[in-house]
């Protein structure tokens, strides 16, 4: 029991057979490279998050049956949902032992069920009451925990749980049989700056346990969740090693020599991993975010059976960055942009889109909307003349949404919405217009971060000897919806640096307007007006396309405020 | 302590001050009519469901402060969120005692936190560990429970809880001080056939407790949830009385004479309520459903500050029924229909819409879409000719969606989507086309139920001496999207009787295709094809407008299956 393999794989939610094949393949590599035990991520057999599939008892049963059928050459601990004991209990979030030529056995089920932010596990799972202990060979036992089980110990959960599985294992190891190591099966989603907290969890657990703590994390996207991988080993003395982010592969940990290696699935190449003491490799936050949204889009499309995407390109920064992300995710040959100038479009709105498309090597259609805009406006003339101005502005945006959807439907492609989190929060966007699309790559990215991504994309192009796709003009012009003459965002929104700061404190930290004013020193009335507008536009967020969740708290049912909250 | 008042009110989520006024007003009526104790519904101070407002600690604090400020003439038990004890615990779902000239006191916090179907309470609340006992006057104590607390005892929850608060109270009443009655503060949502189960809960509790059990329920709609009221008193001998459904008012229960009365808010009239033995007044299910969707739409609009609605009227049954519901909810003067014939529209599609609009007394605009349809099709000609036929069909639907939104935006009204649950489930609808709208009154109503509603609406009109709004032609023609020549739903969907049965068994009972085939005797391949299509159209359900939840299980985050589930 000296070489342990962490199978950092990218399962697809619901694809039981495909996930089993992925696990087998990774386990073979582990065996080939001399591992004596391999561990998968949490719920690797179903993919995470399985959500309502767990309500179908047939699905849960099939997952466990598939574990029984796994043929492996080394002992394996597999994350899998466990059928409930009775019809009136929920399934478990389990770890199952598979040993060649011996019956499989459920080792443990997750004790701590996160039910906050993107997690809804109390809804789906029954929790276990004892820690997982697994005897591997004579006299050698290990602790088995599942994701959140290790987080209470480090104090890194929003609400305290009544038990601490790491303490339970430490007591067992002290009083009963000494455990040689503890593993943790994780599906721990990415968000910016999370890497550090995950390492803190691992070091804290290893220190208390007095033995190595090995965390195997899922990688890739499933629906709106994104997993960065970065599986970890931590030793009690604070030494750690970490697998690379955003790639599938096997992390091999040699406990005797205190060394770690990683075998990439793509090239089967084995690389040594650095050992850090307490600190860890610093991450380029923007580069990480770019990888996250790229992989989010890539996996959303490929796992849904979609190979190409269509988007409207206005010459603005959001659509340019979205196009570049799509080209990274699916290849430029699978990305179609549409320039749709109207009477309010500036010249640069067309030329900037052309620069981006050319630099990326993607197709760009041009469909001026005048010939449909004029007769449509005629049909609504009385209504528009007598009514709210917003009707005319939205009309243009919706005509464009309709063309994007038309091209997407004709080509069997997915339309992308290009909006960012700042404007979606303020309702500075049009339902069924620029919000149309099956996925919004920037829907959880603040406008200020969109600029950072643009620079990162340009730098990457230059490094690779290509033309930067985001033009200077796109980067420097004041953001505008171009739905009315000379319109710019600044007319109706504060500068994005200020807007993003206020919204982040409200949405991610839960601060009230008063508290934000106190914290930032900014004008309380301005903040109150912004938050009123935020609440009033809740109905748009109810209908927005899925986005890769990249912030500590994102939009979604979980964070949905009731419409009626506007009275609050 | 002989006359108890149940304040069956309609609070607005987030409107703390407004809810306090409503409670005070109801309590005054209760006092005036001689009540000696009054009880509100669950979370009456915040409205139910408060969802993410509970994550803002300021909101929770303000709710409790508002309870302190209530000025009342009789003892009151108020449902209110309770601030958590530390920053690392969640708030409680509490009952607070208010007695004139004495300090308020938290009596209890909900023990059983439902986390299934429309409920997510583990996400938001900390649970109490002991039952609520409140001494009202010398030697007279009562039990206090909150909604789900009473449901475990009747076995009417999907998963068993480890404790049973009704048994706890019964033990206390046997071993310690005898309780004279137990109250239950509820926000128990409506769904068809639920009335019976709620009565079963009350009778079961009264029987075990050996004293009267009084359940006060919220009435009205908050976002997508609908509450039917129907507050209940049950005696240990199986006698019950029930407040009327769908109206705000005060239910007065005289424990001495075993009688009950109801004072309607609207006319302040006091009516006697019948006392039933075990059985209960039978409910007209269709009439009840009609009230539910009407009140759902009415409260959604009024609580969001919207007074008028716009919808497309095709001459089909869905838009006709939606228009009639809107006329009931908001008055026909606040409903605008738009007839938008295209080259594929039949003559009757226009005349049937006119019959409906005229009978309802609502405005009907006519906007033929040809003049925008032709140039738009020209812009997409190559794409449509070379691509998937669906692009051309969707185009028409989206042009109509755009016009509906245009009129709605111009008039500051809300657009309504007219789709029903059967077609939304199958994806037989167009994103940003007929799915456009802020609310979908029929989004959780099966197509077969839409027909039942149509007959109910016509009967009601005839009873009131008006012309039936749904024409014979609308009722009898085969359902058609009219997006291609001679198209009818039956070309691509099974008959709705069969479709609805299969979908209901899958979505509400969680049965697999195989199990449905076994249960219904229908062809397994046909069922499998339907369920595949159901899964493939998940992305549309992610983006559908809110609907009043009227079925035992509805669409929504809770019941959302991951997109990738299509591989399952």
Low-confidence stretches of chain A: 556-560, 563-568
Derived structural class of chain A:
alpha/beta
Report the CATH architecture of the largest domain in chain A.
4-Layer Sandwich
Measure the end-to-end span of chain A: 59 Å
Radius of gyration of chain A: 25 Å
Number of strands of chain A: 21
Tally of domains of chain A: 2
Largest sheet of chain A: 8 strands, mixed
User: What is the average of the pLDDT values of chain A?
Assistant: 91
What best-fitting shape of chain A do the alpha-carbon axes yield?
A: elongated
Description:
The structure is a homodimer of 568-residue chains. The first copy, chain A, has 18 helices and 21 strands. With 568 residues, chain A is of the alpha/beta class. The longest helix of chain A has 22 residues. In chain A, the strands form 4 sheets. Chain A has an 8-stranded mixed β-sheet with strand order 5-4-3-2-1-14-15-16, covered by helices on one side. Chain A has a 7-stranded mixed β-sheet with strand order 6-7-8-9-12-13-17, covered by helices on one side. Chain A has 2 domains: 281 residues, 4-Layer Sandwich (Nitrilase/N-carbamoyl-D-aminoacid amidohydrolase); 215 residues, Rossmann fold (3-Layer(aba) Sandwich). Chains A and B meet through helix 2, helix 9, helix 10 and helix 11 of A and helix 2, helix 9, helix 10 and helix 11 of B.
């Amino acid at each position: 029991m000296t070489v342990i393999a962490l199978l950092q794989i990218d399962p697809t939610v619901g694809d039981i057979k495909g996930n089993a094949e992925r696990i087998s393949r990774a386990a073979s590599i582990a065996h080939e490279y001399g591992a004596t035990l391999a561990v998968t991520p949490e719920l690797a057999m179903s993919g995470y998050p399985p959500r309502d599939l767990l309500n179908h008892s047939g699905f849960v049963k099939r997952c466990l049956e598939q574990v029984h059928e796994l043929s492996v050459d080394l002992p394996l601990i597999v994350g899998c949902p466990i059928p409930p004991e009775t019809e009136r209990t929920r399934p478990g979030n389990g770890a199952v032992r598979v040993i060649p030529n011996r019956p499989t056995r459920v080792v443990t089920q997750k004790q701590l069920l996160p039910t906050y932010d993107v997690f809804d596990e109390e809804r789906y799972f029954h929790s276990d009451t004892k820690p997982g202990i697994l005897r591997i060979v004579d006299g050698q036992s290990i602790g088995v925990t599942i994701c959140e089980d290790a987080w209470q110990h480090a104090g890194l959960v929003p609400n305290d749980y009544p038990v601490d599985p790491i303490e339970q294992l430490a007591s067992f190891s002290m009083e009963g049989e000494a455990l040689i190591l503890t593993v943790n099966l994780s599906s721990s989603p990415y968000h910016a700056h999370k890497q550090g907290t995950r390492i803190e969890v691992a070091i804290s657990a290893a220190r208390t346990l007095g033995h190595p703590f090995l965390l195997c994390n899922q990688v890739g996207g499933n629906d709106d969740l994104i997993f960065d991988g970065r599986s970890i080993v931590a030793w009690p003395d604070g030494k750690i090693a970490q697998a690379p982010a955003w790639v599938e592969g096997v992390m091999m940990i040699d406990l005797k020599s205190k060394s770690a290696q990683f075998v990439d699935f793509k090239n089967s190449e084995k690389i040594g991993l650095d050992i850090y003491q307490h600190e860890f490799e610093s991450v380029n936050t923007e580069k990480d975010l770019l990888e996250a949204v790229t992989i989010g889009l890539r996996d959303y499309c490929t796992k849904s059976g979609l190979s190409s995407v269509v988007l409207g390109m206005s010459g603005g920064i959001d659509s340019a960055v979205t196009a570049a992300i799509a080209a990274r995710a699916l290849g430029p040959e699978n990305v179609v942009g549409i320039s749709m100038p109207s009477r309010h479009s500036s010249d640069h709105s067309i030329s900037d889109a052309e620069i981006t498309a050319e630099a990326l090597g993607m197709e760009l259609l041009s469909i001026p909307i005048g010939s449909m805009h004029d007769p449509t406006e005629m049909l609504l003339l009385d209504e528009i003349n007598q009514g709210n101005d917003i009707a005319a502005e939205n009309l243009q945006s919706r005509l464009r949404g309709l063309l994007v959807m038309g091209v997407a439907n004709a080509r069997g492609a997915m339309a992308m919405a290009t909006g960012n989190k700042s404007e979606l929060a303020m309702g500075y966007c049009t339902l069924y217009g620029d919000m149309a699309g099956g996925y919004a790559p920037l829907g959880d990215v603040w406008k200020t971060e969109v600029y950072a991504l643009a620079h990162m994309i340009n730098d990457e192009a230059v490094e690779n000897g290509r033309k930067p796709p985001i033009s200077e003009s796109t980067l420097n012009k004041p953001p505008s919806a171009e739905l009315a003459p000379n319109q710019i965002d600044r007319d109706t929104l504060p500068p994005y640096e200020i807007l993003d700061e206020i919204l982040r404190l409200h949405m991610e930290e839960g601060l009230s307007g008063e508290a934000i004013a106190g914290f930032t020193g900014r004008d309380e009335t301005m903040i109150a007006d912004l938050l009123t507008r935020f609440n009033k536009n809740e109905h748009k967020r109810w209908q927005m396309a899925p986005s890769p969740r990249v912030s500590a708290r994102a939009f979604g049912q979980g964070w949905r405020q009731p419409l009626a909250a506007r009275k609050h």
